[in-house]
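Quick start: what a row looks like.
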Amino acid sequence: MPVDQLTRTFAALADPTRRAILARLAEGEATVGDLAEPFPISVQAVSKHLKVLERAGLITRGRTAQLRPSRLHGAPLKEAADWLELYRAFWEGSFDHLEARLQTGDPPGEGPGERRAGATATERLGADA
């Protein structure tokens, strides 16, 4: 089954080391040695992370003499951000609902028209009557 770009992007972003590498590359291109410096892992391990990022299309690797500097490629990140944007109204609505609950002091499940946690159908009917 072919894997789409969005899946490759999120799979690459799932690792905190790769996210840190992308954050560093957002400042400008860097070699594997530069990128490996702040991590307690080998240059070879960083190189493997770079291969994952490159396969996901998140970075490009050039060649300058003996060096292969890596550069951030933003298009896949934009696609991921656009996809997440589709859900913004949902999570903002959820936060607005939570804020309203916190301000009124109503515990979850006890507002008008909501089920009480652990209540039976008969108890709910009696409570609504």
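That is the whole record. The first helix runs from residue 5 to 13. The CA atoms of residues 29 and 79 lie 22 Å apart.
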